[in-house]
Structure formats: structure tokens, C-alpha cells
């Protein structure tokens, strides 16, 4: 059984650096398409988690990535642009792709370079020496521009097996030119841990381990194991994605690697990462929030963070579980923000609840009896389909209502939405939505009518058209994103709506959720929560 690192000795530890490729490598996942707003929200999420490098995409390759790199999107993490090394036959100055990388608002550039001589000949149609020269010049240009340079040696392990000397020469060229990190990529995902460890150990003879990284794909379900094997052999940077997303079978899962590095003695005694204990305790929330953002159901059986990760059926183990549920837990679930599902007491549930409230800045006394009612309602709502991991604003409002801390700003008397499909004056077939919303503020009824390019857009405009004395409080409020998930099949399906809102003046973002058999009703719930949360944060006077 694995040993928890809680008893590890306090000694000087080496730093391991975490590099996230979710916004670039993860974007290649079948069925996942990030919007610009998704990328902004995910970058912020990664920054708060404590990731050292956030790779945002390939500026110049498409309009979205170019727009994403018009400003720095992280506060603590090194915001990293990705792109190719200089093209053969071009100078640095005459390579548009390279110039786009140099001009991007990033802290670092991660160049992808061919390190398999077969690819140099077939894909690049150039010579081995020209490829090495392209690596050197690209790194030198990045360093001269004041950016940290990284080089992803693509297909490194395949290249090493085919021509060891040339693969190593590519890594050396990058390092000697000034690259902070030379990353060894198992691009096909077919290398096994013992091979990874042996090859990395050999490479450390030419490039110091504290300048080496590992980028593992998961085609044999070995990406996490390969990353750990590479660390054991000497690398000090690990690349991966949130929840292991990525092309084909995915990439190394940082959500699994982070707690393994922090909680398992063999790693925790030797290394430290940039993720704090507090952030680790929110890892489950991070993971599930990310899935909600992507409109995907979280993997119930995911290590550490899955809903079933600490669930044990009693059976023949009943007596042991009754004596101590930790008998079948390799780490304490609360360390990663999860909970056990064996004989979970109300007190244990309340403990998790108080911890979540604290993380949102809501002070709560564990002995406050109002928390019992809140806990019951949260469980009832979760059974109906509500998911609060990605909707902190809605959860905050729910909690504060139980604690008597949400003023009554307005009452919704009624709302109505009409959808009309017709031909306009020039003979075009158009679909228009019209919404009517009646609100009561200070005893006075306010009715607003608005048209929109969909029922939710019409409702949003009508809701914010006349909010009486609160109108100035919502001037900068905009609806940024809208996601719908059908929770069960059939024509009577339950619908969950997740809405992202933003204050344009402060760039503050928040998420709200609504659940109903009716998509418009679910949307209205989320919209109402969004406006209420904005008024609460703005300390608007109650009606």
C-alpha cells in the first residue's frame, strides 16, 4: 500500500516545475472546441492552481489564438506561446511564424522541433544540420527578445531509438543556445516507463536534469507513469493537461500527477511544486469545474478527484470499513478536496461544507444549526442535477441565503418568452425571440420587453433593461458564455445551464447555474443569480 507523505521529513527539496498544455495540446481533443472566453477562464483557473507555465496556443496560426495573445492572461504563471522553430531557408527576420511568436504578449516561447532524423528528411525536407541550426537560431531569437525559451523535442524517444546521436544533438543544440528547458516528448505515446527512465538517464549526461522536461502522451495508459519515471531519472519539468485531455488517448494528467508528487513520500520528501496545500485541497473542485466548463460529465472513477475515488462497497470488508474507513484509502480524501462515500456522517458532510464556504470567503461556525438546512438543500439540489463545482456564485448565494446574508433586491413577478419564425421585409426567413419580464422593486412593478437573437439573449436584455435604482450597478455586466447540458434523455429531459458573466470594468468573472425540464426556465434561474450576485458584490442597497 502507498505511504502517505504526511509523516515525511522536513528537508531541503528540489523544485519540480509544472507546465500545462491544456489550451494547446488539449484543444486537439476530439469533441473539444475552446472559445476565447473558455481559454481566458481556463488560464485564470490554472494560474490560481499554481501551475508554473500556461501554454496558451499558437499565435498567428488562427484568429482566436492571435487574439488570446494580445495581452498577458496570467498573473503568476509564465504565459507561454507555442510555435515552430525557424523554417529552413528563411532568416529569423523573414519567418512570419517566428516573428509572430516574438511579438506575442507572452513571457516564454515553447518551440516544437524535430528530433527524429526521419522527420527532418520527410516532413521538413531539409538536412540534419539545417534543422539543428534552426533550433539554435530560434532559441537565440527568443532569448534576445527577453523571453524564456523552451524547446519541445518532438518524437524524441522514437528519434533516440532510430538515431541516438542525432536526437541527443537536437537536445544539446537547444540547451547550448540558451533554452531554459529542453523537453523530451513521447509524441506517439508508445514508450514504456523502463525505456523512459533509461533514455532520460542517458540524456542527462549531455543536458543537466534541471533543464530537462518530459511531455508524455497516454496511448498505452502510461503517461503519468512515464512522467514519474522521467522525474526519477532526472527531469525537473513535467508537461501535461487538466484531466489528461489531448489528441488520441490524451496526455499526462496533471490532476493525477499533482497529488502524487505532493502526497507520496518518495516524491514529497525530495521535491516541491508550486501548488499550495490550500490549492491542493481544491483540486477536486478544479477538475470538476473544468469538465463543467467543457460541458462534459466528470469521470466518476478518476484517481483522487472522481466521485467514486473514495467510494467503497462494504461486502466482506464491512467490519474494517466500520472501524476505520481509511483502511481502503491511500490518501485522506479531504487533502484533495474530495470526500469518502462509506457511511458519510452529517458531521463529515458539514465539515466539507464549512471548508468550501471558507474558500469562498464566507465565515461559518460549524456549530451553526443553519448549516444543517444548507447541507440538506445542497444534497437535494445535487440530486435534481445542480452542480456547484463550476458555479461558485450560485453556491455563494444559496449559502448566504441560509445564513441570512442576501438582501432582497427585487422580486420576479413573471416572465414570458415568445419565439417567432417569419419572413422579414426583404423576404429573408428569420427567427426572432421576444421576452417580457416583470420585476417588483420597492413595491413598484417594472416591466421590460426586449428582442434578441435567441430566447436567452432576449431574456438577458429584458432583465437588465430596467432595474430601477440598481441600473447603474449593472452597467458593466455582460453575459460572456452560455452552456447547456442535457442530464437525461427523452423529450422530458432535465437541462442544466451554466452561465459565465463578467464585469467589464474590473474583469471579474463568475458562474451561475440553473436546472429545469425547461431550458428557458433554467436559463432564467442562472441569469437571476448572476444579477443578484453582481448587486451583492457591489453592495447595492436592498429594496
TrEMBL record:
Tell me which UniProt keywords the record has, alphabetically.
Amino-acid biosynthesis, Branched-chain amino acid biosynthesis, Isoleucine biosynthesis, Transferase
Enumerate the Gene Ontology biological process terms.
Answer: isoleucine biosynthetic process; L-leucine biosynthetic process
The UniProt entry, under InterPro entries, shows:
2-isopropylmalate_synth_dimer (IPR013709), AIPM/Hcit_synth_CS (IPR002034), Aldolase_TIM (IPR013785), Citramal_synthase (IPR005675), LeuA/HCS_post-cat (IPR054691), LeuA_allosteric_dom_sf (IPR036230), PYR_CT (IPR000891)
Residues in coiled coil: none
Sample GO molecular function, one term: 2-isopropylmalate synthase activity
Under CDD domains, the record lists: DRE_TIM_LeuA3
- Which SUPFAM superfamilies does this UniProt record tie to the protein? 2-isopropylmalate synthase LeuA, allosteric (dimerisation) domain, Aldolase
In what pathway does it function? Amino-acid biosynthesis; L-isoleucine biosynthesis; 2-oxobutanoate from pyruvate: step 1/3
- Give all residue intervals belonging to the Pyruvate carboxyltransferase domain: 16-281
Q: What is its EC number?
A: 2.3.3.21
Q: Which reaction does it catalyse?
A: pyruvate + acetyl-CoA + H2O = (3R)-citramalate + CoA + H(+)
The record's similarity note reads: Belongs to the alpha-IPM synthase/homocitrate synthase family.
Q: What is this protein called?
A: Citramalate synthase
**Taxonomic source organism:** Breoghania corrubedonensis
Amino acid at each position: 500500500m502507498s505511504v502517505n507523505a504526511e509523516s515525511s521529513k522536513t528537508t531541503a527539496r528540489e523544485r519540480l516545475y509544472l507546465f500545462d498544455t491544456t489550451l494547446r495540446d488539449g484543444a486537439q481533443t476530439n469533441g473539444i472546441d475552446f472559445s476565447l472566453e473558455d481559454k481566458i477562464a481556463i488560464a485564470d483557473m490554472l494560474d490560481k492552481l499554481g501551475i508554473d507555465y500556461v501554454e496558451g496556443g499558437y499565435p498567428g496560426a488562427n484568429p482566436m489564438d492571435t487574439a488570446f495573445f494580445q495581452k498577458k492572461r496570467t498573473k503568476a504563471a509564465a504565459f507561454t506561446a507555442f510555435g515552430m522553430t525557424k523554417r529552413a531557408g528563411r532568416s529569423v527576420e523573414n519567418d512570419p511564424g517566428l516573428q509572430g511568436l516574438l511579438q506575442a504578449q507572452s513571457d516564454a516561447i515553447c518551440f516544437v522541433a524535430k528530433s527524429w532524423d526521419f522527420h527532418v528528411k520527410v516532413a521538413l525536407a531539409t538536412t540534419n544540420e539545417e534543422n539543428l541550426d534552426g533550433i539554435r537560431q530560434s532559441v537565440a531569437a527568443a532569448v534576445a527578445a527577453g523571453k524564456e525559451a523552451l524547446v519541445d523535442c518532438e518524437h524524441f524517444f522514437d528519434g533516440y531509438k532510430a538515431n541516438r546521436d542525432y536526437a541527443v544533438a537536437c537536445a544539446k543544440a537547444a540547451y547550448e543556445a540558451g533554452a531554459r528547458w529542453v523537453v523530451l516528448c513521447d509524441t506517439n505515446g508508445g514508450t514504456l516507463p523502463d525505456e523512459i527512465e533509461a533514455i532520460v538517464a542517458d540524456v542527462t549526461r549531455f543536458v543537466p536534469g534541471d533543464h530537462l522536461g518530459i511531455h508524455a502522451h497516454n496511448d498505452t495508459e502510461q503517461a503519468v507513469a512515464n512522467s514519474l519515471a522521467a522525474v526519477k531519472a532526472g527531469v525537473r519539468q513535467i508537461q501535461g493537461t487538466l484531466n489528461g485531455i489531448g489528441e488520441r488517448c490524451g496526455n499526462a494528467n496533471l490532476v493525477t500527477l499533482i497529488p502524487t508528487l505532493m502526497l507520496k513520500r518518495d516524491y514529497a520528501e525530495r521535491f516541491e511544486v508550486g501548488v499550495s496545500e490550500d490549492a491542493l485541497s481544491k483540486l477536486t473542485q478544479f477538475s470538476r469545474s473544468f469538465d463543467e466548463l467543457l460541458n462534459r460529465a466528470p469521470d466518476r472513477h478518476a484517481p483522487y478527484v472522481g466521485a467514486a475515488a473514495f467510494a467503497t462497497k462494504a461486502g466482506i470488508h464491512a467490519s474494517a470499513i466500520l472501524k476505520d474507513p481509511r483502511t481502503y484509502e491511500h490518501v485522506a480524501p479531504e487533502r484533495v478536496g474530495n470526500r469518502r462515500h462509506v457511511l458519510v456522517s452529517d458531521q463529515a458532510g458539514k465539515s466539507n461544507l464549512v471548508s468550501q464556504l471558507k474558500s469562498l470567503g464566507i465565515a461559518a461556525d460549524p456549530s451553526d444549526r443553519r448549516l444543517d438546512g444548507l447541507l440538506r438543500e445542497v444534497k437535494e439540489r445535487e440530486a435534481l442535477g445542480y452542480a456547484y463545482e463550476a458555479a461558485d456564485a450560485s453556491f455563494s448565494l444559496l449559502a448566504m441565503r441560509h445564513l441570512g446574508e442576501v438582501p432582497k433586491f427585487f422580486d420576479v413577478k413573471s416572465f414570458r418568452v415568445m419565439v417567432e419564425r417569419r419572413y422579414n421585409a426583404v423576404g429573408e426567413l428569420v427567427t426572432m425571440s421576444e421576452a417580457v419580464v416583470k420585476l417588483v422593486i420597492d413595491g413598484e412593478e417594472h416591466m421590460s420587453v426586449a428582442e434578441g437573437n435567441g430566447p436567452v439573449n432576449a431574456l438577458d436584455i429584458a432583465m437588465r433593461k430596467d432595474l430601477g435604482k440598481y441600473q447603474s450597478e449593472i452597467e458593466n455586466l455582460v453575459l460572456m458564455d452560455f452552456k447547456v447540458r442535457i442530464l437525461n434523455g427523452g423529450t422530458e429531459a432535465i437541462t442544466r445551464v451554466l452561465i459565465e458573466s463578467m464585469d467589464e470594468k474590473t474583469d471579474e468573472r463568475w458562474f451561475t447555474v440553473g436546472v429545469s425540464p425547461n431550458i428557458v426556465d433554467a436559463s432564467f434561474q442562472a441569469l437571476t443569480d448572476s444579477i443578484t450576485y453582481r448587486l451583492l458584490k457591489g453592495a447595492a442597497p436592498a429594496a
